[in-house]
């Protein structure tokens, strides 16, 4: 059973451990077969920490290592919200649109776009509505 780390220190340790394990697997086999989903959980860990500088480095590594990976819904949401917090709203809108279009039934039943996401690691209220309202597939 997976337990989400409950302190900043535990989150940082888990990030280090997962990144080391992924790299070790690549070094041993030449590729990463991540059946557990560590590559997805790292997006959540960085978002919860509010560590957007290291998150950005990880995003780039992820895109290089897994160019054809469709991702995981929670990973995609954390990625979009992280990009939004980083001030990269155009990229955030694209990620959120990709998430919504690839998970239509799940998104429709899971989110009330007028509600506030309760978790607030950066000390700012984050409303989904402005981000959802600003999605423009033509841009």
List keywords for this structure.
mainly alpha; Serine Threonine Protein Phosphatase 5, Tetratricopeptide repeat; 139 residues
Q: What's the structural blueprint in terms of helices and strands?
A:
Layout (H helix, E strand, L loop, with lengths): L7 H22 L8 H12 L2 H14 L7 H13 L3 H14 L1 H7 L17 H6 L6
Summarize the structure.
This protein has helices at residues 8-29, 38-49, 52-65, 73-85, 89-102, 104-110, 128-133.
Give the helices and strands as they follow along the chain. HHHHHHH
The strand count comes to 0
Oligomer: single chain
CATH architecture group name? Alpha Horseshoe
Write up what this structure looks like.
It is a single chain. The chain has about 140 residues and is mostly helical. The chain has one domain: Serine Threonine Protein Phosphatase 5, Tetratricopeptide repeat (Alpha Horseshoe), CATH 1.25.40. The protein contains seven helices and no strands. The longest helix has 22 residues. The radius of gyration is 15 Å and the shape is globular. The C terminus is likely disordered.
């Amino acid at each position: 059973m997976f337990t989400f780390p409950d302190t900043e220190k535990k989150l940082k340790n888990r990030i280090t451990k997962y990144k080391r394990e992924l790299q070790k697997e690549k070094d041993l086999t030449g590729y990463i077969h991540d059946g557990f989903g560590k590559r997805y959980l790292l997006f959540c860990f960085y978002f919860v920490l509010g560590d957007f500088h290291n998150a950005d480095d990880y995003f780039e590594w992820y895109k290089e290592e897994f160019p054809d990976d469709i991702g995981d819904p929670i990973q995609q949401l954390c990625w979009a919200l992280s990009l939004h917090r980083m001030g990269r709203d155009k990229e955030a809108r694209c990620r959120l649109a990709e998430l919504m279009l690839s998970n239509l039934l799940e998104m429709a039943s899971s989110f009330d776009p007028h509600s506030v996401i309760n978790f607030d690691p950066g000390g700012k209220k984050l409303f989904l509505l402005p981000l959802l309202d600003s999605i423009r597939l033509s841009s």
